[in-house]
């Protein structure tokens, strides 16, 4: 349960700080545009993404059980956050995030991190691919430069996109595609460099320089605030807590699963071992802190954690530097961020959705392995896209556990007729 930062600082050196400083700044340059894009796609203000990256990112690194975990807002939450905001408003999201923080703290104290092995892998893969599809569909409006409103439901959104196909504009589409091409190019040629912000900056700079008819972040949201707001307790009335409990449970489940998966990926990349109890406690504290400052739900971010490792991050100090760098950028360069082009941020999220779906594993997911696992994955994916993430996860976990019991040949219950 001891935070990793306490054990790593015992052998800390100037060389370690240099490595952590470079890695922290590098991953901050990746996290900055991604945090803005995730917040916008979630239906929240762009500043909430930065607040989450700063507050939650700092707490996850300071209290977490992984040496190199980077925390903040992630694409996995977009669907849930958008749904909560649509139904309960942003204040409802803040309350749900606060409750999720408490649930994660309880899970950490109860050492529930080891229970992740009981969540069937096809279920995780299924709802992750489903979320990726929903994110991609939500970004087509900005990439195509459409102005027509888009409904939240998938089938209705597909119909609205088809009806608005005549609105497709050349310049927004070009900016989105060029941004995606540049990001892909930077990832191949210089994977340890912050190619995301360079690509988004170059295309956004071209929009400003040539006066292209492309919507910017400032056009839609105005100038970003400089600095963090004052902390404030959310609405914790009993009626509100009962109303938002299902959303809080889903947020806590996603945060716990994704953070532990990210920590396990980091372990494979570095050879170290994380402490699951400390990691869940850190996620709980991070979500509490984010909600107090009006931020979004947070968790460990697999892509940003991998970027941190590739850039040379060695200890949680890199994560602290990442959070402080984003804070400095918010204090100094908030007006500059308002010039970022919306199609560029949408292109960034389209690539994020593509990477979330892990196309390199599609063959294994859909063509190989047990037939029952493939069916479970597809059903979870379909329910995520066309029904609801809560339904998808509930169905997937229940069906997966039933399949596991069946494979272990657990004998059926010997029911005794009641004596009435």
UniProtKB/TrEMBL annotation:
GO cellular component, one term: membrane
Residue span(s) of domain SLC26A/SulP transporter: 17-380
Pfam families in the record: Sulfate_transp (PF00916)
Main location: membrane
Keyword Cytoplasm: no
Location(s) in or outside the cell: Membrane
Keyword annotations of the record: Membrane, Transmembrane, Transmembrane helix
BP GO terms, sorted: transmembrane transport
Membrane topology of this protein: Multi-pass membrane protein
Protein's recorded name: Sulfate permease, SulP family
């Amino acid at each position: 349960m001891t935070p990793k930062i306490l054990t790593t600082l015992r052998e800390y050196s100037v060389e370690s700080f240099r490595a952590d400083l470079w890695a922290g700044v590098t991953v901050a340059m990746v996290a900055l545009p991604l945090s803005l894009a995730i917040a916008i796609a979630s239906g929240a203000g762009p500043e909430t993404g930065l607040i989450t990256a700063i507050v939650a990112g700092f707490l996850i690194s300071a209290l977490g059980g992984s040496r190199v975990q980077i925390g903040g807002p992630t694409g996995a939450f977009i669907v849930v956050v958008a749904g909560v905001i649509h139904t309960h408003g942003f204040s409802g999201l803040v309350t749900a995030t606060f409750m999720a923080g408490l649930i994660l703290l309880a899970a950490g104290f109860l050492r529930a991190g080891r229970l992740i092995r009981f969540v069937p892998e096809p279920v995780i893969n299924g709802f992750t691919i489903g979320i990726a599809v929903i994110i991609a569909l939500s970004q087509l409006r900005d990439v195509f430069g459409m102005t027509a409103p888009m409904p939240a439901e998938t089938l209705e959104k597909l119909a609205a996109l088809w009806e608005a196909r005549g609105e497709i504009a050349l310049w927004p589409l070009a900016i989105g595609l060029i941004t995606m091409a540049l990001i892909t190019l930077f990832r191949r040629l210089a994977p340890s460099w912050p190619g995301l912000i360079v690509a988004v900056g170059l295309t956004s700079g071209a929009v400003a320089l040539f006066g292209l008819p492309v919507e910017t972040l400032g056009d839609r949201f105005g100038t970003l605030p400089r600095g963090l707001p004052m902390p404030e307790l959310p609405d914790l009335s009993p009626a509100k807590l009962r109303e938002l409990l299902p959303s809080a449970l889903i947020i806590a489940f996603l945060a716990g699963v994704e953070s532990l998966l990210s920590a396990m990926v980091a372990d494979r990349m570095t050879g170290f071992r994380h402490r699951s109890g400390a990691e869940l406690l850190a996620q709980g504290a991070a979500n509490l802190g984010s909600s107090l400052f009006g931020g979004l739900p947070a968790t460990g971010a697999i892509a940003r954690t991998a970027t941190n490792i590739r850039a040379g991050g060695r200890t949680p100090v890199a994560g602290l530097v990442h959070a402080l760098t984003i804070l400095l950028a918010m204090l100094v360069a908030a007006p500059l961020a308002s010039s970022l082009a919306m199609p560029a941020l949408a292109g960034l999220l389209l690539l994020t959705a593509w990477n979330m779906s892990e196309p390199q594993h599609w063959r294994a997911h859909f063509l190989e392995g047990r037939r029952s696992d493939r069916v479970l994955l597809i059903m979870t994916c379909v329910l995520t896209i066309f029904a609801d993430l809560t339904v998808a996860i509930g169905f997937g976990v229940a069906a997966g556990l039933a399949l596991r019991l069946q494979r272990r040949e657990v004998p059926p219950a010997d029911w005794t007729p009641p004596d009435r």
